[in-house]
Amino acid sequence: MAKRVRTLWQRRGRCSTVWGAVILLASLTGGAAHADPGDVVTAKRLGMPLAAKIAEKAVEVCQGRGYNVSAVVVDRAGDPQVVMRGTQANRFTIQIATDKARSVILSGVDSSVFRRNREDIRLEMDHVDGILVLDGGVRIDSAGTLIGALGVSGAPGGDKDEACARAAVEAYVGRLDLP
Prior knowledge:
Layout: H1 2-33, H2 48-64, E1 70-75, E2 80-85, H3 92-107, H4 111-117, H5 122-125, E3 137-142, E4 145-153, H6 158-171, H7 173-176
Antiparallel strand pairs: 1-2, 1-4, 3-4
Helix pairs in contact: 2-6
């Protein structure tokens, strides 16, 4: 009797192992046959350490010019990645800097270019929640791909905000232009 039970157990073990292998093989080959290259997309993203350096550089550049500003880096979806407020910067500069950066993400161009190009809809765009069409937002690109934006607010004029933002991004262009 014990010999018969052992033989049945051995057969079941082998049988379940064979069926397990067949099911695994079918699932691996069946799934691959229906895969589409567009199903999974990889995208460049700005790493947090470099985003923090860019924001900090923008605040430092503006402080060196006598301006108390906030700098906000947003990712390619427009979500804040780094928020840096200068010690003496007004709290409202954070929201304004964020909205300037988001206008870059929306338009694909620096916020000053967007403002000049679309003056015809500027008032309407300023009513879109999270967007301000003002100078002071610049693209952050990596090898020609938009990976984020930097918005600066607090200087006496958007042109000055933009100059600080541009200087900050240009300071790290060598680290950004990687394929």
